[in-house]
Amino acid sequence: MSFSANCPGCGAPVRFAFSSAVQTACPFCKAIIVRNDVNLEKVGEVADLPEDASPIQIGTEGVFNNKNFLVVGRIVYSWEQGRWNEWHLAFSDGVSGWLSDAQLEYAISFHANPPAPLPGAGEIRPGHVFQFQNAQYMATTLTEARYEGFQGELPFTTKDREAYPFVDLRTTDARFGTIDYTEEPPLLFLGWSVDYAALKLRNVREFEGWPVA
Amino acid sequence: MTTAPAKPRMRSLQCPNCGGNVDLHGFAHTKSAVCVQCCTILDPTGESVQILQKFDERMRVRPLIPLGTRGKFRGILYELIGFQVRTITVEGTNYSWHEYLLFNPYHGFRYLSQYDGHWNDILTVRGLPLFVSSGGRRAVTYEGRTYKHFQTANARTTFVMGEFPWQVRVGEQVEASDFIDPPAMLSAEKTGKEITWSKGEYITGAEIWKAFEIKGSPPPARGVYANQPSPYRERIASMWGRALMLMVVWAALLAWFTFTGGGSQIYQQTFRYDQSSSGEHSFVTDIFELPGRTSNVEVRVDTSLDNDWAYLNMALINEQTGQGFDFGRELSYYSGRDSDGAWTEGSRGDSVIIPRVESGRYYLRIEPEMEGGTNAMAGTHVMNYKVTVRRGVNSLWLFWLALPLLLVPPLLSSMRAGTFEGQRWAESDYAS
């Protein structure tokens, strides 16, 4: 599943853990590398991510719905009350998923095709109800988020990203969804809120003074 | 591969107001921290520490569990990193409760609340509770359970200590609504347009004291709390069930005893009365022994009467003392058939219970009498009859009387349960 190539910036070997990765960062020269078919292109340099306290890191492994995943990438967004992470997961069957971590509240979601074109962010108010995959999702929060940076491998490029609206969706059970306006048309992600313990994470970060859980 | 980020360490900052040290335990999650020396709320997230607010030191409240306390609670190691007092004002009276913020760098945040010795274990809710109506009152449903609206009030933060993953400020207000389904409670906090839901579960102070190994004992719980489980509610259904079952068994036993008479049979003999036979009809039976301690004696007569009546004059006589208990029984039994069908009237048998008969040797004197008396012309009346003597027969009427007493415990519990619910709702928006 993994493959290697050379960094177009410094020539160092760059290994891709996720075969469908479109963007990664060179661990040596910090070049942002975007892949077009077999060609790698340097599109900029990664900025240092702000210090954070997520227990997840690139290389963390876990289980969701009896399928193993490996954390291969990450996008960091910020909003008025802080930051959150979207960890890019490469599942054992090649599917790409996302583990969001906001103040240690976790949710796993997958890209989904909306049954009808999604409305623009300006047309959605809290309480707006959508019918997706046999469940009613209610818009709860509209967030103006700023792209803060990325790390590792992503299934798309984050080149030129700035600020975008996000709409949080909830159901009466623990389902979770996001309408992501970073692209046009907007992207829909659907999934579940999850317990830290249920993910059975391995290779997590260590924290001073705490046993690894 | 990208290099792993540095291991997060605890850090300490200097209060820009008083120069005191403020230790941070929440790593990069901490959005505000309170300088315990000068009651200043600091923002540690930027390049330099910013003062968010300085509040009145006279508001100081001592937490029951000290900040920094660690313990394994619900299987997870937590550290207590924040403490706040929140207050609502109802009809001019302030009611304050304490909230403790628990932290684990992997599992996240959890809250414990305390009011008058009542505790709740609180987590944020993942799903979306739905507003409904239950019996004309506001309610919400969540995870298949219905929570009744209990109270809505403006909750303001009146004291803070420690650190928080949000920018805390004293005086900040939210509209807080509580919905209950004891021992659970759903709380909605409304700020602007956004509603944040959390779910509390009523727990005892003892459980917290044990988990965090706190010395001494928790303050006793006073009164009835909103989502305190009723100690009666669970019990009542089973109490009623048990009482009804006991009543059935009791009644069945009584019926059986009534039917069989109970006691032990001492004497039984069958006699024949023939009016036509000449001479004295009265006679005495053989002597029988009434054993044991003083108790009652049942004398039962069963006859072969058919469309006839008889009178039996009897006496139970102590052979040694000559003391006797006189009694009589009239028996009649008629049957026939009319337009309504077959009918019967009266009974062929009857019994007498003689109370408190001492043990000893006894015999019966029996004098039967039938229609026509001594008139020899009417000598057609004949009956066979059986006399049975039993010792220690139960006086069953008392036991039948006791039957409804079985309902007293469940009735009392139901009344107590009602009182408990009354006390609970007296603190709500629906107090009568």
From the spread of the alpha carbons, the general shape of chain A counts as globular
Largest sheet of chain A: 8 strands, antiparallel, barrel
> What average pLDDT do the residues of chain B reach?
90
Strand residues, percent of chain A: over 45%
Largest interface: A-B, 44 and 38 residues
* Content-based structural category of chain B: mainly beta
How helical, in percent, are the residues of chain A? under 10%
The shape of chain B, in one word, is rod-shaped
Name the structural class of chain A.
mainly beta
- Residues in helix, % of chain B: 10-25%
Instruction: Give the helix tally of chain A.
Output: 0
Multimer state: heterodimer
- The number of helical elements of chain B comes to 4
Which blocks of ≥5 consecutive residues of chain A have pLDDT under 50? none
Kindly, what is the distance between the CA atoms of the first and last residues of chain B, rounded to a whole number of angstroms?
Answer: 67 Å
- How many E strands of chain A? 15
Low-confidence stretches of chain B: none
Largest sheet strand order of chain B: 7-8-9-10-16-15-14-13
Instruction: Please compute the radius of gyration of chain A using only Cα atoms.
Output: 17 Å
Overall mean pLDDT of chain A: 92
